[in-house]
Amino acid sequence: MFSGFLLSLVGIREDILRQAPSDRARYLSMGAILLATACVAAVAATFAVRMALRAPLPLALLVGIGWGVLILTLDRMMVIGMNRQKGRWRTALMVAPRIVLAVLLGAVVSTPIVLQIFDREIQAQIKVEQSKNETDYQRDLATDPAYQTIPDLETKVAELSAIASRDPAVIDRNPAVRQAQDAYDAASATLDEAAKAETCERAGWNCENSTGVEGIGEAARAAMDARQRAQEVVDQKKVILDKAKADAKAAEDINAVAAQAELQRIQPELDRLRAARDAKTIDYRAKSENSDGLAARLDALDALSAASPSINRMRWVLWATFLAIELLPVLFKLLQMSGAPTLYERLSDLADQSDERAASARIAQEENRIALARELDADRDYLEARERRRSESL
């Protein structure tokens, strides 16, 4: 049954082949070649659909089988349609279009298989390209005029948020407050030194510049007066510092209200720009993650071939191999036509001639029948017309 199927692919009549059993293996081989070529095409189409459309495997297999059937039909048509011609030029004109079509089909079939064989190397190259494209994208995004105001707006929002939050640290950074604080700290340091000197004089300790005499003497009174003056200076500086902080706080309250109003004005614009930038980035990365279809794989394979001579050689060897597989049916038929006619071909020609003579005889017989019927119709019409004239004359 299977051998009958293979012979039917090549268009062989088994009733004639039984008379030429020596040719049976040849035509079975040709049928097997046609079937193998269709299977390779089905596998290639399955790979192509998976790569290009990311289709599920059952759907890809269904499309692959359909493509294999189509290739089988085309190859069968080309093989059956190739007959011996009188003269080399007629043979060449008959064979050339079929070879061109076979080459085109072979290129289409072999490309997905070659891509699948180099899949690991291609995936690695695609990741390299995606990383490079991501770097280029970030650079272009940073220089995009539509989003160049984002860093300035972010800085401005941070400053306004600090002011609007009434952070005590902002008051401490006020120039007037810092100046008053420095003056107060200096006066406090002087007070500490004066208090230490007073303690040394009254206790009679051997401190620097002290008399070392215990009790309240002239030196102790002078030290007490110095401490008192230092305390008065500290009190004055404390009043100035408190006033500077109060003034700074009042100014910060006013600034906080203004900052809050300004923040409400520029925050929506910053949010809009950020959302647009993030949406653009999400869209780019979604496209980048899906950029591993047939075109991207071919570009990656081209890059690998340019960088590695060994991959380039292997790529074209594989491509030529699968191309040759697709060309096999036509080449096999051409080789058969270049030799002497086989016994099956001679028997088939005789059968065709016999069928043609029989068909010609049937056609001639049918033509004679039609001619006779026309003559009979003409005679009947003549007799009817003569009878009408006789009736009219009476």
Q: Helix proportion of residues, in percent?
A: over 70%
Regions with pLDDT < 50 over 5+ consecutive residues?
none
Shape call: elongated
Q: By helix and strand content, what is the structural category?
A: mainly alpha
Count of helical segments?
A: 13
Supply Rg: 52 Å
- Could you give a short account of the major beta sheet? none
Q: How many domains is the backbone divided into?
A: 3
What's the average pLDDT? 78
Structure summary, number of beta strands: 0
Order of helices and strands: HHHHHHHHHHHHH
Compute the separation of the termini in Å.
79 Å
Q: What is the percentage of strand-forming residues?
A: under 5%
Could you outline the blueprint of secondary structure elements for this entry?
Layout: H1 2-10, H2 14-17, H3 24-53, H4 57-81, H5 88-117, H6 119-142, H7 150-164, H8 168-172, H9 175-203, H10 218-289, H11 294-307, H12 309-338, H13 343-393
Helix pairs in contact: 1-3, 3-4, 3-5, 3-12, 5-12, 6-11, 7-10, 9-10, 11-12
Structure description:
- InterPro entries: DUF4407.
- Pfam families: DUF4407.
- The chain crosses the membrane at residues 27-49, 55-74, 95-118.
- With 394 residues, the chain is mostly helical.
- It is built from 13 helices and no strands.
- The radius of gyration is 52 Å and the shape is elongated.
- The chain starts with a helix and ends with a helix.
Give a nutshell description of this structure:
The protein is mostly helical. The protein is 86% helix and 0% strand. The chain crosses the membrane at residues 27-49, 55-74, 95-118.
